[in-house]
Amino acid sequence: MVSFETFLPTNNPVQRKNSGTMGYDVPEGVDVRGRYDPEFSKILTRDALQFVTDLQREFRNHIKYAMECRREAKMRYNNGGLPGFDPATKYIREGEWVCAPVPAAVADRRVEITGPVERKMVINALNSGAKVFMADFEDALSPSWENLMRGHVNLRDAVNRTITFHDQARNKVYKLNDQTAKLFVRPRGWHLPEAHIFIDGEPATGCLVDFGLYFFHNYANFRKAQGQGFGPFFYLPKMEHSREARIWNNVFDRAEKWAGIEKGSIRATVLIETLPAVFQMNEILYELRDHSVGLNCGRWDYIFSYVKTFQGHPDRLLPDRVQVGMGQHFMRSYSDLLIHTCHKRGVHAMGGMAAQIPIRDDPAANDAALELVRKDKLREVKAGHDGTWAAHPGLIPACMEVFTNNMANAPNQINSMKRLDASVLIEEDLLQSPRGFRTMEGLRLNTRVGIQYLAAWLTGAGSVPLYNLMEDAATAEISRVQNWQWLKYGVELDGDGLGVKVNLDLFGRVVEEEMARIEREVGKEKFKKGMYKEACKLFTRQCTAPVLDDFLTLDAYNNIVMYHPIGSSRL
């Protein structure tokens, strides 16, 4: 039997609270350990839990094998190996196949907004004027029991168009407009457990819980109200290999068969946000060819993955993270190859995130930030992307204007921008080390952002405004792994004339000084009430660990898991 401790670190004991005598009605072999709530019980029905349990039992061994393959690949990279195109699947890359036609309901995806499944956010995002809202159970959400379950309640109400929110402070009621964005849902990655639900003695797979509960409750109404006979629609994160896409395809097939809906009804966009996955884009689309509506440039996680993949390669050190933009050759090559691959296969090639947020107290700075967004989006649309991401509703008009003005009134560029020039890109283009320099300010910014993000995450916020950018787990991960890399290899901070080498003493001083700065910036009261000291301890431990942890949030997860002795009425 696999225990909870097998999946998670044990240095932070799981919290337990008494939940009273009520419990969820669960199938055989299922144990719900999260707090009982009458509203949650409408999501965690016996039939819904049985659906999730059936998925877990059918696919758990495939998932475990895929995670073992990830570990083996990591060992190869750490021993000097490089990711690359697989000779065994050359026939897929060179074949003339295409994916199923894109449904009319999602042909136009010029601007998509993303955000957590928080109630007010869901309403505002659906009303934002964007073509798509990606409701996020992953990097923009701190996956506490309360956040997850309330998220499912919110999405059910959104699909049913009954969702409202009363802002008591403003005495304002929020509700859906007649015209709303199309709803996509992003479940968690394969690697994350759901520790509040045990199935056959081990934690459920987080993404199967996210997908299963949402699909069970919403597929019928979504297809009628939003999908024009298709759907539901999803975003799939953190994949590293096409075998992981094959599992998702089989999950979709299984769900469609259970629901009695046509094969290919469910559609998904895969985020290419790991370095190994860029060499598997054709193969990923091939595995999902009946269910695919494209790929997306998850560029912040992609940078994080570059460092993680090359953690054993001292010749591939990143410059300050602010210098690792789409102008770097390896980043531009990744974007160009994604566009070529998607359009060759007949699906969308989605651009990256504009993380800026409006700067209301400084019009000049706000105008400058918007101009940077416009330039980035102009680069994307001219490169051939079919749409882009925005983190804030205030960016949507600017992004929409750029894409609309450069797409000749077409809903996408799938047939008009094939990017045949990108077909000659080779492995070296995708692996080229980024150029730039490293500075003390880069080390300080990494530390300050990482600690503040993690402090917010520990208190339930997964999408955090910091220094006029909307940060999620991806940017915190870049901060962490870059600090770890610089410490491991004792890099010289060569960009500010100091010539200082990064070591534990220097990092300790930086942490102390940045904590003092955070306290000044947020105020003594907020600092005292927040979890900044706990976050600092976690972040510092991760940055100085002899072995790089795969994910910051996996280590931190134990801090937000809360068990209640009575969660299920049948154990």
Automatic annotation (TrEMBL):
Every Malate synthase C-terminal domain range? 438-560
List where this protein forms a coiled coil.
none
Cite the PROSITE patterns for this sequence.
MALATE_SYNTHASE
Report the EC code(s) recorded for this entry: 2.3.3.9
Which reaction equations make up its catalytic activity? glyoxylate + acetyl-CoA + H2O = (S)-malate + CoA + H(+)
Q: EC class of this enzyme?
A: transferase
Looking up Pfam families in the UniProt record yields: MS_C, MS_N, MS_TIM-barrel
Q: Does the keyword tRNA processing apply?
A: no
Compositional bias (Polar residues) spans? 8-21
Stretches assigned to the Malate synthase N-terminal domain:
28-91
List keywords of the entry alphabetically. Glyoxylate bypass, Glyoxysome, Peroxisome, Transferase, Tricarboxylic acid cycle
Q: Which residues form the Malate synthase TIM barrel domain?
A: 182-432
What pathway does this protein act in?
Carbohydrate metabolism; glyoxylate cycle; (S)-malate from isocitrate: step 2/2
CDD domains per record = malate_synt_A
UniProt-annotated stretches for the region Disordered: 1-22
Localization (cell): Glyoxysome
User: Which family is this protein grouped under?
Assistant: Belongs to the malate synthase family.
Looking up NCBIfam families in the UniProt record yields: malate_syn_A
> Which protein, by its recorded name, is this?
Malate synthase
Give the originating organism: Solanum pennellii
